[in-house]
Amino acid sequence: MEIVVFGAGSLGSLVGGILAGDHDVTLVARREHAQTVHESGLRIDGELETQVTPAATTDGRDLEGDLAVVTVKSFDTPSIAETIATGSFEVVLSLQNGMGNEESLASALESPVLAGTATYGAILREPGLVECTGIGDVVVGDRRGGTSNVAETVGEAFSSGGLETTVAADMPYRLWEKLAVNAGINAVTALTETENRAVLESPTDHIARAATKETARVARADGVDLSNREALVAMESVAEATATNTSSMAQDLQAGRRTEIDAINGYVVDRGDELGLETPTNRLLAALVRTWERGQELRN
Ligand code: KPL
Asked: What is the pTM of this model?
């Protein structure tokens, strides 16, 4: 399969690198990373180890392929959708954090858009080198739920490429479950500059659990049957599997970059407000991260 990964940072480089063992992969990445991959290939270290030679470019315009995998930050989704629209793909898969990415892609693109979640831990250590800090899994499926041949084909391509992949008929549930995981782990580990295991330890475990339970409550009010217990089990098992990983939001804060707070805890607060539910822990976490972003002049 010809696969283009748009936004080859930590997770995108890991996913694209693993798939490059079996598929024809192009990474669309930042300049230094793209240049190093182009010249010397991509090395994957840590819990998975391999050296691959995907194509790499900084320019995502006018590209073609069977599959576009989108791993950009949620706030960059509208602009990457415009870029992808200049090329041609049979199918587009969002493997991003937060809610609303698939709708944003679908409104700008003619190709079918699949939803996906990924819980692999990944850190881009330096240009050309990504470390796998936790073996997770990938779930793909129709964004509104149900099954489709397109989702099956993508699932088979991912599995044959070496990524643990499930094709799910219940993507709305899976997306809320992943949101509950990220709502519990990301802001807490970012604000405390800790690894994911911090959400399993006192006193931060209480904050993470409260944020996760609030998310499950909002999901239920939104018509998705995610129990508090299911959400907590998901959050804690991802935290265990990626215990020594630095979450994507913690990596963003450490690097002084804008975070995905609006699409994670911020989304829970907004949807909770619309549905008449209080979400005090998510509100507090969102306020703290946004205040940090304002202090860094990353937002208004
Ligand atoms: O999605 C993640 C992230 O860091 O954004 C998890 C699964 C929490 C892995 O760290």
From this structure: 0.94
